Amino acid sequence: MSSASIEDKLANNKYDIDKEVHVSIREDICKKCDEHYCLYACPADCFKLTEDHITFSYEGCLECGSCKIVCDKDAIDWTLPRAGFGICYQYG
Amino acid sequence: MKQRFDAIVVGAGPAGCTCGYSLAKAGLETLIVERGKFAGAKNMWGGAFYGPTLFQLFPRFWEEAPIERYIHRHRFSLLTQDSSLSAEFTTKKFGEPPYNGFSVLRAKFDHWFASKAEQAGAIIATGLQAEDLLWDRNTVAGIKAGGDELPASVVIACDGVNSDLTDKAGLRGKLLPRDIKQGVKEVIQIPRHLLEQRFNLSGEEGIAWEFIGSFTRGIPGGAFIYTNKESLSVGIVAQLSALCEKKIGANDLLENFKQHPSVAALLAGGNLVEYSAHLIPTSGKAMIPTLYSDGFLVAGDAASFVLATGLTLEGANFAIASGTAAAEAVIRAKQKRDFSRKSLSCYPELLKQSFVLKDLKTFKKASLFLENSRIYSQYPELACDLANKIFTNDGKPKKKIWKLLKNSMKDRVAFSEILRDLIQIKRAL
Ligand SMILES: Cc1cc2nc3c(=O)[nH]c(=O)nc-3n(C[C@H](O)[C@H](O)[C@H](O)COP(=O)(O)OP(=O)(O)OC[C@H]3O[C@@H](n4cnc5c(N)ncnc54)[C@H](O)[C@@H]3O)c2cc1C
Ligand code: SF4
Ligand code: SF4
């Protein structure tokens, strides 16, 4: 199998994406963060480093909870998506 | 007036389904709430069910449950960049009822498990999320879910590793990245005949295959391949703190693993159908939260009941056994009509009588030992290098194996380090 990007991998998953955002970051805090642990912790590539700042998109989130555990600056406002929304595994 | 339940179980994973099933069977008015659209929709794992916990609940369950294959062989491999050294174990008993383990995909399996609880009389509300606890002074008195208040005599948190309810009950401190492993997995479809040919399987036989080696770049963790009926579960487990320190994502480790020549050959021509991720609390006894309070109990991953010994990862049977113990504690409390902390204090005693707390105590030093990075890089390299020297015929006169070993150890690991690690193994495993 040829190696695929995370984005390509996620395209196989079934989601019911909510309009409501369930995870967000405090950009003012992230601006002062050098470690960017979230970049390596997120298995769904929801965090991106563009030039010198972190951006976040919630759509591909696998609801694993890693980002909230590794961010030592409490910059992540983390909740689960509303019931019935988000990832819906068909295999698991 | 609103219905008041005897018990509300939050989460329909193995812990919650077992707990809800046992409570309903004993005649308690039981509600199980599950945030997924169906039980299993939010869950992933390796994974294989081991041990007798499940057939104690449902004798001959393999005849009705959506099992993929029974685990007939266990294989363990050490990988370097381009070599592999493997050991395999199988025994006749693994191929006969009641079997030893089963490969399972959660979406189907949890759904079946929840239906068993429902048949026993529990009410299952899927697509409903417990958002908060209801309190009556210092006693948990139910949950808030979907904008409603649902009162109950007792709440059992079976909501998994990210247990929001255990946090809200004030029973658990912040989870630390060092105590957590991240699992990422791909389900790769392969035509059945090809899969059976590649893994040398016939009928419903399956294999559970674990790997450690250079693909994790010294990060504590490993990889796995489980055979399903017509697909493979291929994944990585890696310590969260080490991923951050080494600035590498688990998916990159998975790609490293998949590109190993021995692994790539097994996956060739396969078709990725799902990519998933989930956390595992792997520090064992050291990270168990307070297990109960007034009107409240914690079971399964929410209580960090997972056993990781490096060779095996078991959580589902711990979830089932703790779900059973929690149900038993609640049934006794119901008889006394007393759901106070004092009344529920038989719960840890019941866990101590089962393997749950016994095993976690036996292996309480395992997690610290498993942080030793030599396990993941130097030792696999040493073993493969030695095997290479033994098996390569270069036309020169042969050396004694002891000499070859000394040679392979050079620059990799000192004899004193090996000795220290052996002593650690004795203590931890
Ligand atoms: C990669 C990986 C490989 C593994 N391999 C194995 C293996 O081979 N063998 C093994 O025995 N174990 C394995 N495990 C561990 C095993 O999966 C867990 O220990 C087990 O699933 C724990 O069961 P549980 O019922 O406690 O929690 P979970 O299975 O996590 O179930 C929790 C449930 O609660 C629901 N929920 C959460 N919050 C709420 C809420 N607020 N309201 C309503 N519902 C909620 C979730 O949707 C979920 O259905 C593995 C784990 C991983 C991640
Ligand atoms: S989310 Fe946390 S870890 Fe990530 S950049 Fe912001 S502060 Fe740093
Ligand atoms: S919960 Fe997991 S998948 Fe979602 S953003 Fe955080 S790290 Fe990424």
Would you give an account of this structure?
The complex is a heterodimer of chains A (92) and B (429). By secondary structure, chain A is an alpha+beta fold. The mean pLDDT of chain A is 94. Chain A has a single domain, classed as Alpha-Beta Plaits (2-Layer Sandwich). Chain A contains 4 helices and 6 strands, in the order H-E-E-H-H-E-E-H-E-E. Chain A starts with 5 loop residues before the first helix and ends in a 5-residue tail after the last strand. In chain A, the strands form 3 sheets. A two-stranded antiparallel sheet of chain A has the order 1-6. Chain A has helices at 6-10, 27-30, 37-41, 66-70, and strands at residues 15-16, 23-25, 47-50, 53-56, 76-78, 86-87. Chain A is globular, with a radius of gyration of 14 Å. Chain B is of the alpha+beta class and 429 residues long. Among the domains of chain B are: 5-66 and 105-173 and 289-354, FAD/NAD(P)-binding domain; 369-428. Helices cover 35% and strands 27% of the residues of chain B. Chain B contains 16 helices and 19 strands. In chain B, strands 3, 4, 5, 6, 11, 12, 13, 14 and 15 form a 9-stranded mixed beta sheet that branches. In chain B, strands 1, 2, 7, 8, 9, 10, 16 and 17 form an 8-stranded mixed beta sheet that branches. In chain B, strands 18-19 form a two-stranded antiparallel ribbon. In chain B, strand 9 (139-145) and strand 10 form a beta hairpin. In chain B, helix 1 packs parallel to helix 9 (316-336). The longest helix of chain B is centred in the C-terminal third of the chain and has 21 residues, at 316-336. Chain B is globular and about 85 Å long. The N and C termini of chain B lie far apart (55 Å). In chain B, 52% of the residues are buried. The model of chain B has no long low-confidence stretch (mean pLDDT 94). Classes of the chains: A alpha+beta (92), B alpha+beta (429). Chains A and B meet through helix 1, helix 3, helix 4 and strand 6 of A and helix 3, strand 11, helix 6, helix 7 and strand 15 of B.
